[in-house]
UniProtKB/TrEMBL annotation:
Protein's name according to its UniProt entry: D-3-phosphoglycerate dehydrogenase
EC number: 1.1.1.95
GO molecular function, one term: phosphoglycerate dehydrogenase activity
BP GO terms, sorted: L-serine biosynthetic process
Pathway assignment: Amino-acid biosynthesis; L-serine biosynthesis; L-serine from 3-phospho-D-glycerate: step 1/3
Amino acid sequence: MQHVRLGGAALQMPVAASCRRCHMNSWSAVERCYRGVLASTSSTVSTGASLAPVRRVGLRQATRAAASPVVAVAASERPTILVTEKLGEPGIELLQQIGDVDKAYNLTPEQLQEKIATADALIIRSATQVTKEVFQAAGGRLKVVGRAGVGVDNVDLASATDMPPPLCQPSPSTCKQRAPHGCLVVNAPTANTVAAAEHGIALICALSRNVAQADASVKAGKWERTKYVGVSIVGKTLAIMGFGKVGSEVARRGTGLGFANVIAYDPYASEVKAAALGVKLVSWEEALAQGDFFSLHMPQTPQTKGMFNDDAFSKMKKGARVVNVARGGVIDEAALARALDNGQVAQAALDVFSKEPPPPDNPLIGRSDVVCTPHLGASTTEAQEGVALEIAEAVVSALKGELAATAVNAPMVPAEVLAELQPFCQLAQGLGTAAVQLVGSHGFTDIHITYATSRGDDLDTRLLRAMVIKGILEQITTSTVNLVNADLLAKNRGLRIRETFVSAEGKGVLASLKVSLGTSDTKFSAALGTDKRISVAGTVKGTQSYLTRVGTFDVDLSLQGIILLTRQLDKPGVIAAVANVLSKEGVNISYMSVSVTPDNDAVMALGLDQEPPEEVLDQLPSLEGITETCVLAEKL
Ligand SMILES: NC(=O)c1ccc[n+]([C@@H]2O[C@H](COP(=O)([O-])OP(=O)(O)OC[C@H]3O[C@@H](n4cnc5c(N)ncnc54)[C@H](O)[C@@H]3O)[C@@H](O)[C@H]2O)c1
Ligand SMILES: O=C(O)[C@H](O)COP(=O)(O)O
């Protein structure tokens, strides 16, 4: 017998001539199939997103969150590394030390599918779409995709994780149980942060002094000194919308530019971190009302998509200025064009667009009051060298079969721990996702996880804790959370994590799990426990996760799909009135659970088959007896 270390687990397996699962012979075939067993023991787990102005959260989403624990497979021979977008030379040199680098830029989707079958690793930036078809065309050879930058929105992570194995795909005669082979995806999350922040600052300055327009005018032979009078920055308020890595670097620089105030809206940011940078965290409404310049730095998620819409622009000061180096989709582009038309927004500077490159009919690119750059945020020599090195190191270690610290789709966990705790992963992530949805606009400060277990503090909580953090942070950041980075990401955000064990004799490894968040503000007051913290608890019945408690109210319904929570007086007709409003719109109720206190306060939890339209949700609070409502929804 030989011990093989896979993703941190020492597994015993025979150095066999052929694999019992697919009959492939050779050591690597056995290894690959064994890894497939690991991967296939996990199921797709849930996530979604939730943001303060929106009331939706995903409890089950199968793309970015597909958390099958894939591990990198060591390449046996000198690997081929396909690079499809320009990568800094230091990175190329590092890659050449261990493999053959094939630089092939500007490939069509068809050409990429053709070439990918020859590659062990693929390195991309934001322009290469790595689709399901690409992973299928890889035929199992591709071991790692390296994204030289932050955003992995152009990589189909679910397909990467579930990539079919080589040779034994998909012939039932050679492999009866299809085991996902998995392709590791790694990114370079930090090396371009400063470059993006500097570009944001450059656009703020360019906008305030009409640099781009005046340049074009002079080059057109004109000398229009009165036309291009600008506005000063001094004395103005800079509103940072999204106070993460890039946003906080813009804030740091904004103070030095002379802005009188730098404020930030980010419901999940740490007040301590903001205060240390001299930044005041404010609510969405306050930010819109106070900002003169808006610099956008939130990730694009289903919840942030189009959050700068007609309503948002109408709440800004007349003549506000908007800069976007985040993602094009956070702005409703037609709404911005309308706001510019009526002078509500004076000018905008955009590095990113909902579709890139923007088609000629994009309502913003032809305007003289809009400055555009072609997604240049990360494009400095220094950032590209840094990103190239960061990604080359990650790809090299992945190809060597080592742990990749910036793995996007690879929680590493010993097989025996995985097998035991896997049923509780979905619960842990679902509770994290539900809890963060209940947070109000002031964010939260810490996470407290309570495990009811017969193991006491012998329980290995790394995986469950990571899944709770994943459920919370993947709703609100660009980070992809896994076992490797979960604690660090939480720490970096100033989130304290506390774990408590309560005894649950005879109930198996985990009887129940509770997640509570420290906050002064909630969207659903019934979610506040007696300790004035938002708390949700759940359990696993069979293989299914159940929500069993919201605040001090007992509930009992499947923790998936769309959940409508209502708080109400316990009196005849209230439940029927809610059901009536839903049924009129054809919204089916599949589960229901009502919890009542002695003083007639009740919480009802309804599992719905589809998301209720906004008009329906708007009617509910006005029904007699209903005091508050909240939806935990998903978007598949
Ligand atoms: N233009 C470029 O070339 C370029 C370069 C780097 C990053 N980016 C983009 O910039 C954005 C920020 O990147 P980052 O590295 O700072 O990410 P990050 O995850 O460090 O920060 C994102 C922040 O947004 C906050 N947030 C989430 N939802 C929010 C909401 N509804 N309202 C306000 N804040 C919200 C999060 O709490 C987090 O603090 C991302 O979209 C990223 O893709 C663009
Ligand atoms: O997500 C990122 O890192 C930035 O948007 C930069 O993208 P790029 O590498 O294509 O410039």
